[in-house]
Each structure stands twice: as structure tokens, then as C-alpha cells.
Amino acid sequence: MSVLVEPSPAAQAHPHATRRPEIDGVRAVAVALVVGYHVTTGQVSGGVDVFLALSGFFLVHSLVGQVARSGRVRPLTSITRTLSRLVPPAVLVLAGTVAASALVLPETRWRELAGHLLASATFTENRHLVAEAVDYAASNAIASPMQQFWSLSIQVQVLLAAPVVVAAGALLFRGRRRRFARPAAVLAVAAVTAASFAWSVVATWTDQQVAYFSTLPRLWELGAGALLALTLGGVRPGRRTGVLLGWGAIVALVACGAVLDGAHTFPGWQATWPVACALALLFVADSGGRHGVHRLLGLRSLRWLGTRSYALYLWHWPVLVLYLVHTGREYPSIKGATAVVLLSLVLAEVTYRLVEQPAAERLRGRSPVRVLSLVAAGTVPLLALGAGTTVWLDREAARVAAATDDPDYPGAVALSSPVVATGGISGVEPLPSLSVIRDDHPFMPGAWCTVEDDLPDAVPTQTELCFSGSDDRERRIVIVGDSHAAHWLSPLADLAERHRWQLVSLIRAGCSLSTQSEFFEEGTPGHEGCVAWQSRLVERIVSLEPDLVVTVGTRTAYGTDPEILPPGFLEAWQQLSDAGLPVIAMRDSPRHLHDVPDCVAERGGATDRCGTPRSWVYSDDLLEAADAVLPPGVSLMDTSSLFCTDDVCPALVGNTWVYRDDGHVTGTYMRTVRPLMEDEFLSLAGW
């Protein structure tokens, strides 16, 4: 979302000469699509792509105007002008979002909120979301109320870099070489746009979730707008062409979100649809006469909405997300959707009148140094808040790690006591604290890891291998599979140290030791990479020459769905059995219908209502049936007693929280299960 949809500097000097009121209408349509689709369907509308193209278009007008007037660009002046328009409304929205989130979001979301605050305040939210897109653990978190800053971050990164590049180019083509400046600019922008588009197609195919938020795969959308400004900025089509092209573009733009699944296909070639619509509307302008689309786009109501589109874009997302959290809904009701839109419009109007417009006017004539100082004064408190919260949470995490051997936190051991007590200890706060629970992952202490690229002629994918213990140890164990296999890293690392084994992990989020993709459906992001990884997994395991392979043995489900032993598991185990490798398959850990930490936070510690009946999780008949189909050398270890009593799989055991979301176990709890599993594990291994 950009506020840089403004006349060029030359036009500002003569405002009546080139005023284009239909641009505000384009912005209004784009933001209406963004808000409408988010509030009603949650889909991607293509509206953001329109703003990216508009940003490129008006960026060129602004910079070319400076060159035309003075023969050069003052980068610092351009940068401060951008910041003076973008930062004040952004600071207000971020401050309001933090205040509201502190009241609405549970303590379990504070670290996430602090991270997004730091990223949004520094216009790196898109990079933060890229990191979350490749972090499977983050996929279970609710959408951040600051996530809308991703597109603004991309634009700011480009808008801050472009004046420096253009300034260097202006110096290079000054004097007699100035006549070559425009052709050189066209060629340079065209080359960058083409390269970005090609990379966008490739990146979207290989990892669409990462490409969606990344700057380079999105750069071509700004480049397309810039090319239009450089080549056809002063050209208009004939009246009949203008009518057909203008109305066709507006209809196609409105239909884009309903036809394309932008959330799973953008920013690849499919994103050319909304970008092309934006370029067509910019090109057509008012050339259609009295039947042109500019008559619609120039309506006062649309121009009003267009001038407030930046503020509306920033406000609608936190209002929507916090409404959904507060009500516990996945989608708003009709009344709720109406309330979200109306409140967002009110906040946008207040922001535009009291902050955005006054700040831009007052900062425009100030020196660059003063503008930067004022911008910093607004953002520093937000950065201090985010950094301070992160430091405090890190200290909380360190306190959790230090309590590993504390008798006040027996964890799973409490399940083996004469009187089973699954709750907490009076007067002692359970661990890990809810503020850091989502970062409490099982891990191998002291492990070192390598990342190997797979064959170049295959689907691009990588394999991470982590090693704990030296190669000269008596035995080597390989633990392999998805995030539920990773649960066993902590207890197996403890066992490996006690018995002098080497432990090797082959973990990939969402990818089991199976001949089939168990979680990623065909055609969805991650499917092809997972299948490629699985296709070479057995060969890679065999090459490690392990004495034992450990993996997940069943797949638990949610609610009334039964626990299963997937056929793909059996087929992969058979391949390992044929290679002479023994396998211990650990029965899967419980999954819940709700996010357990959020449930605990919302119910104020009433943990008895946050567990799940054991009968909803496990099918004990499955174990008896499995004995008849397991390949030779494969053992299925029943781990259900490590997480559940005869009746329930509780949220709190031995004063230790068991789950960090709806189905992943905390590292703190998993470090307490070793005493309960050691004898049976050694027996199944034959050691």
C-alpha cells in the first residue's frame, strides 16, 4: 500500500495542469477490494498488486521531475519526503495496534507481537514473514495484527533505494550524455523488471510462501509501473479504445480475486492480471470521453476513499484480526464484518485528517536532517518497546532452561507416581511460562548441522543433517521425519549422552518418513519439495550406516477422526528393513482441537478444560492390528502413557506445560520423559 500516488513534482508546481482525479478512484477500488476480500472471504484480491504498480509509476514521475528541473536527484530529499508521508500514520497505527493487542491477545502471543513490531517499525516485515513462512512452528500462530506492513515494507525498501540509484545515473549521464539518459533508464528498468519477473515465476514455483513476501520477486510489479511512466506516460489511446480498455480493466480487476487463488499463485505470472489492469487504467486516464471509466473513478465518494486508502489499508487488518481473536471466530459475521469496515473507515478518516495530511504538509518544507530526526523520534519508542519485550522474554526462556532438574518440575515423571497428579504445584508457577512457550522446542544440545543441496536435475530442495556426538561412538542412531519426530530429539539426546551414542537428525517440517506426502496435498505449496525429499530419504539414511532408525509410528488425529498407521509409513519401513536397518517407530503424540496455550491463557489457569479425552486421540486396537503388518526389524513403541492418563491427555503434567500449540509438545516437557521411556526403548533396540 502506498501513499505516493501523487502528481509529479512538475505537476505540483502547476497543479491544475496535470491533475488526475481518476487515480484516487483507482486507489479506492484497490483498497476496497483488499478490505472487502479480507473481511468476507480471507482471499487475495490483487489490490495490493495495483498499489505496487502505482508506486513504480509515480516514483518515476517524482524522480524524472527532479532530473528535468535540476539535472540531478537529491537522494536525501527524496527519501525524507517518502518517510514524512509514510511514517507518521504508520507509527500511529502500530502504537494503536500494540495497545489493543495487549488487551486482546493472550500472553502466548507477546513474543510474536514484539517481533512483528520491530519488523514493521523498520519496514522489514516482509522479511520477517519470509522467516515465518519457512518456520513450520510459526504456521500454527494466528495472523499477526501487523502483517499488512509486508507490502509497505517492500515499497519502502524500493523507494529508499531508487533515489540513490537514479542520482548515480544522473551523474553518469550529465552534460552532453544527458540525451542518452532516458533510453538508458528505459533499458535499465526493463532489464530489472524482466529479471525480477523471471525470478518471480521460478521462486513462486519452488517456494511460493517465501516468494509471496520477498522483495525481489515483487520488484517487477513496481518496475511495470515505472516502465509505463517512462515510455507511455504522455500517450493516450483513442476514445473508443479508451472506453473499452478502461471498463474492461476495471471489470477484470474486480473479478481478479474471485477467479485467481492469489494466496497460492502470486507473485508469479498470475499476478500480471491485476498489474495489467492497473497499467491499463493509468494508460487510459480520461481518454474515453463522457463514456470513459474516469467518470466512475472520478466520483467524489471514490476520490474521498482514495485519499484515505493508505490509512484504511493500515487500520483494517489489525481491526479484523483483533476482532476475530476477541470473538473466537475464524470469519466475521455479517454484523461483525460491517463493524470492522465501519471502525476501520472512522480510524482512517481520523488518521488522515489529524496525522497523515498535517504531518506531510509540515514536514515537506523542513530540512532532511530535521525530518529524519522527527521520524526517528516517532519510531524509537516503538523500537524500544519491541526490543525491551524481546529481552525480557529471552530472560524468561533462560529461566526455563535453568529449571530443567528442579524437583518442582517433574513433568512426565508425575505420571508414574503412586498417585498420578497431572496438575501443578501450589505456589509454584508452571514452566515454561506462557510468554515464551511457543519458542520451547525440543533440541539436541551441542549439535552441529550441515545443509546439503539435492541433485540439480530434481525439484530444488535441501536436507539438513544435525549431529550430536563424535563419529567414534559405539552406536549411531538416526531420527528422521517431521516436527512430531523432532519431539524425540531431547530425550534421545539425553539417552545418547548417557550411553555414548551418536545421534543424527534428518528433520523436515511436514514431511514424514513415508513414501507419500502425508500433510501437503498435491498442488499445494511444499508438496513437490516434500515428495522430492522423501524420494531420496531412505537412500540417505542407508548411507549413514546407522545402528537404529527412530521415527514416528502412527498419526494421531483431531476429535472423532481415528488414529491411523499410514500405508506410506509401512512402505518406507519395508525399504529400511530390506536394507537390514532396525526401526523403532514411536506412537504419535496427541493433537487437540484447540490451541492449548491460548486455552490456558483465556481460562485463567483452568487447565482441566484444556486437555483432550484420550479416546479422542488414540485407537488402541490399532496397536494389535499393527503387529501383523510390521516389516521384520520394525518395532512400534507405545508412547501414549507419556502424555495421557487412562482418561485424558492433560495440558499440565508435573507442573510442566505439555503443549506449545495444538499438537506440538514443549521441549521442557520432552526433557522429562527420558526416565519413563529408557527401559522399553533399550529393550526394543536389543541393547
TrEMBL record:
Residues 21-347 form the Acyltransferase domain. Pfam families: Acyl_transf_3 (PF01757), SGNH (PF19040). GO terms for molecular function: acyltransferase activity, transferring groups other than amino-acyl groups. PANTHER family: ACETYLTRANSFERASE (PTHR23028), ACYL_TRANSF_3 DOMAIN-CONTAINING PROTEIN (PTHR23028:SF53). Residues 449-678 form the SGNH domain. One of its GO terms (biological process) is lipopolysaccharide biosynthetic process. The keyword Acetylation does not apply. This is Acyltransferase 3. GO terms for cellular component: membrane. The keyword Glycoprotein does not apply. Keywords: Acyltransferase, Membrane, Transferase, Transmembrane, Transmembrane helix. The chain crosses the membrane at residues 44-65, 86-105, 154-173, 185-206, 218-235, 242-260, 310-326, 371-393.
